Amino acid sequence: MRAASATAADADRPLRALTVGDVAEPVVPDGWVSVEVRAASLNHHDLWSLRGVGLPGDRLPMILGCDAAGITPEGDEVVIYPVVPDERDPRGLSLLSERYPGTLAERVAVPRDNLIPKPAGLSFLDAACLPTAWLTAYHMLVTRGRVDVASSVLVQGAGGGVATAAVALAVALGKTVYATSRDQGKRDKIEALGAVPVRPGARLPERVDIVIESVGAPTFEHSMKCAAPGARIVVCGATGGHLATVDLRRLFAMRLELLGSVMGMLPELADLMDLLVAKDIRPVIDSTYGFSAVADAFAHLESGDVFGKVALDFLH
Ligand SMILES: NC(=O)c1ccc[n+]([C@@H]2O[C@H](COP(=O)([O-])OP(=O)(O)OC[C@H]3O[C@@H](n4cnc5c(N)ncnc54)[C@H](OP(=O)(O)O)[C@@H]3O)[C@@H](O)[C@H]2O)c1
Predict the structure, then answer these.
(1) What is the pLDDT of residues 29-49, one digit of tens each?
(2) Is residue 118 part of a domain?
(3) What predicted TM-score, i.e. pTM, was given to this entire model?
(4) Of all protein residues, whose CA lies closest to atom 36 belonging to ligand 1?
């Protein structure tokens, strides 16, 4: 079967570590099932893997990909929850493509318990955008950020998959949403999603109750300054650098909560899909590639000139 794999690690030129070609069919342990992948999506996680971050050399070659929707041998249309219990990992879990082969293949083996029925109202492509970036944004907003008691949200770096998901979800939940981007074109798209576009570092008209941070060092000081008393600053990533300075006086004086966040739980993915169907929200998809153009899809993601998800259609 065809698959996209990391066959090396290249910190500076990650695409050089990508190999697309035929690999053996997946091994399917007891309690697992082989899912025929119909659609998948890329995440920054896949680029980190190609750089060797979280994927040491002794696990190579490794099929990449966390996100997919597809069909079981029984013909059921499913979405794959990518977090697998894993005693070998200090976190007690791993994401598909970290220790078990990932979703960027024609077939992927997953525990049956990780399958969620795909709602009829969502296409395979839409559903394949949800399990990592959208679930992460949902968990950050709803569970960590307690969005039900918030009125305003700031999303930093609103071009990425997590950030566009956070903007769309927070707008749909009726919050006032501010979102930063360095790029005027992306700020225009942010506005079209219903958020107030903001230049990086600019003063907001009000302080916000939740900050969604996935950029890291370049935006973190701004995130702290924009936080209202008692606000939650929820951090899931650090694309722009992971070493930031925290003004502890502001942290305690404003009673801020600084919260780390990783993915979300399986029932949250089901709740997220129900929310999308109920509110008629669809994932923001930047571009869709056929699987034969997966290397182009990676190059596009790496360029940073992306607004939303980069998706893969396995039927083309
Ligand atoms: N913890 C988890 O469970 C989890 C889950 C998913 C993702 N993540 C992490 O979250 C991060 C976001 O991932 P993503 O795929 O959604 O998006 P991404 O492709 O990493 O980009 C996010 C945004 O960061 C901004 N950015 C990048 N470099 C910057 C810099 N030097 N200065 C200022 N802004 C910069 C860009 O915004 P503009 O160009 O618009 O300014 C970009 O749109 C990644 O680090 C990823 O690994 C974590």
Answers:
(1) 999 999 999 999 999 999 999
(2) yes
(3) 0.96
(4) 157
